[in-house]
Amino acid sequence: MSPTSPAFRTRGYPPVADLVAAVDCGTNTIRLLISGPDGDVVRRQTITRLGAGVDRTGRLDPAALDRTIAELAEHRRLLDEHGVEAVRVAATSAARSATNRDELLDRAEATLGVRPEILPGDEEGRLSFAGATAGLDPSRGPFCVVDIGGGSTEFAYGTTELERVLSVEMGSVRFTERFVESDPPEPEELVACLSVAEAHLADVQRELPELADVRTWIGVAGTVTTVAAVELGCGVDEPGATHHFELTHDAAEDVFRTLVTEPLEDRRFNPGLHPDRAEVIVGGSAILVAIMRSLHVDPLLVSERDLLDGLAASLR
User: Fold this and answer.
1) What share of the chain is helix, strand, coil (3-state, %, to 5)?
2) Is omega for the bond preceding 184 within 30 degrees of 0, making it cis?
3) 116-164: per-residue pLDDT in tens?
4) Cis ω on the peptide bond leading into residue 275 (within 30° of 0)?
5) SS3 of 169, please?
6) Phi-psi map region of 311: left, alpha, beta (phi>0 left; psi -120 to 50 alpha)
7) CA 263/CA 135 separation, integer angstroms
8) pLDDT surpassing 60 at residue 218
9) 23 membership: H or E segment, kind and range
10) Are 196 and 170 in contact (CB under 8 A)?
11) Which domains does the chain possess?
12) Distance (Å, rounded) from C-alpha 46 to C-alpha 49?
């Protein structure tokens, strides 16, 4: 199906009952979800490190752009193969921060036939909340959905609907590039990650006093699902293995200690850790344990449903 054919629909057109698709151009990972009335048809993720170097240079790196566009070309093939009619494409922290974001938007549009939306942090939080809480009993609320991304972390609070959201500039790629230079990390580098995260979290507590009322904490995105997968020792290609697993504070601390004391080449072989995520998991897991320490999160309900699912649901 041509992206310019009358049947090809994007956000703003009437909802369709058949297949819909969402694409998330994240700072670390590019993801695709194709879903239908009976559930997922395709769920794919590829680490392209779109945001590599953005924190330092303020620009998207040409090689990272090329990797991302190559992955989006595969998405286009899958959309055509399945005859998808409604597509929503979003770009998050790296695109928000980059001065050359239009290069990504132009090339993505030429490849996919849909121009990505640059999601503000509050919209990113709203969609993550919608995806993560779908199907949960409201009596388990109020909820806080914590979305640790590559460049930012969102805190989304509510029960049946989102009530408050806050986005802060701490993410696995951002913290790794800013603070982690040694292999394995030096103690002072880890202290820097944790102390900066704690400073951000003091702001979060001040801005969102409602967090004191949270009954169920939910964690989404690659850092959280990876730490849970390492704790469980499951394979990286086992979809659903970590969904609604309750990650305790003690377990998260144990995984953190394991990951940060290993050199990169050893870290890659941890069951549950995708080798391409090994370089940034130190920064990400430091953020996770700082959140669990500072906000007294125990346990954290892991969800494999997140922003991507919220994007897809918005098309129905």
Assistant:
1) 45, 20, 35
2) yes
3) 999 998 999 999 999 999 999 999 999 999 999 999 999 999 999 999 9
4) no
5) coil
6) alpha
7) 40
8) yes
9) strand 20-25
10) yes
11) 9-119 (3.30.420.40), 122-308 (3.30.420.150)
12) 9
Rounded Cα distance, 211 and 242, in Å: 24
Q: What is the CA radius of gyration of the chain?
A: 19
What backbone torsions phi and psi does residue 167 show, to the nearest 5 degrees? Answer: -115, 130
Crossing angle of helices 281-294 and 222-232, rounded to 10°: 90
pTM confidence score: 0.90
Residues linked to residue 148 through DSSP beta bridges, in sequence order: 153
pLDDT digits (tens, 9 = 90+) for 241-267: 899 999 999 999 999 999 999 999 999
CB 182 within 8 Å of CB 138: no
Contact 95, 101 (CB under 8 A): yes
* Angle, in degrees to the nearest 10, between helices 222-232 and 249-260: 90
Reply yes or no on whether the pLDDT at 14 is more than 50. no
DSSP state of 166: E
For the chain, the residue count is: 316
Phi-psi region of 136 (alpha: psi -120 to 50; beta: other; left: phi over 0): beta
| Residue 238 φ/ψ, nearest 5 degrees | -110, 85
